[in-house]
């Protein structure tokens, strides 16, 4: 009987864990067709669970918001809440949403000073400054 109870507990735990796993899926982004834009930083929202970067593309009035990783992961990789500041001009590369719209997943950015900042949402979770 104990074996059956343990099996039920394991099944329930797996079912409850599924939404957490799905939350971290990148399936909504099309990484095979990255967008590259020149833009001005409007805000870097350094908040949990994910940091987001808001930019205004050159010649556009609508902003683009790209998702990054958590503040803790980015901090360990050398980033800070001052990595991008309002008014900074950058060249941004991001994976757009598959359904379209002004949002996506951050891939890299080159700042005016030539510093490249990358984030890879792959299982290795690379996030670095170059």
Brief overview:
By secondary structure, the chain is an alpha+beta fold. The protein has helices spanning 2-23, 71-76, and strands spanning 35-45, 52-57, 64-67, 89-96, 103-111, 116-119, 127-129.
Structural description of this entry:
The protein is of the alpha+beta class and 130 residues long. 22% of the residues lie in helices and 35% in strands. It has one domain: OB fold (Dihydrolipoamide Acetyltransferase, E2P) (Beta Barrel), CATH 2.40.50.140. The radius of gyration is 18 Å and the shape is globular.
Which structural traits does this protein have?
single chain, alpha+beta
Task: Detail the topology: elements first, then pairings.
Elements: H1 2-23, E1 35-45, E2 52-57, E3 64-67, H2 71-76, E4 89-96, E5 103-111, E6 116-119, E7 127-129
Parallel strand pairs: 3-5
Antiparallel strand pairs: 1-2, 1-4, 2-3, 4-5, 5-6, 6-7
CATH top level label: Mainly Beta
Question: Beta-strand level of the residues, as a percent range?
Answer: 25-35%
Task: Briefly note the structural class of the backbone.
Answer: alpha+beta
Number of helices: 2
Question: If classified by CATH, what would the architecture be?
Answer: Beta Barrel
């Amino acid at each position: 009987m104990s074996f059956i109870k343990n099996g039920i507990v394991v099944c329930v735990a797996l079912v409850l864990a599924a939404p957490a796993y799905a939350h971290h899926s990148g399936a909504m982004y099309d990484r095979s067709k990255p967008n590259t834009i020149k833009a001005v930083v409007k805000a870097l929202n350094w908040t949990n669970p994910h940091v987001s970067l808001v930019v205004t593309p050159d010649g556009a009035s609508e902003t683009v918001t790209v998702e990054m990783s958590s503040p803790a992961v980015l901090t360990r990789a050398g980033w800070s809440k001052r990595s991008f500041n309002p008014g900074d001009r950058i060249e941004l590369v991001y994976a757009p949403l598959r359904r379209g719209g002004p949002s996506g997943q951050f891939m890299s950015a080159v700042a005016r000073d030539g510093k490249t900042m990358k984030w890879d949402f792959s299982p290795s979770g690379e996030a670095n400054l170059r």
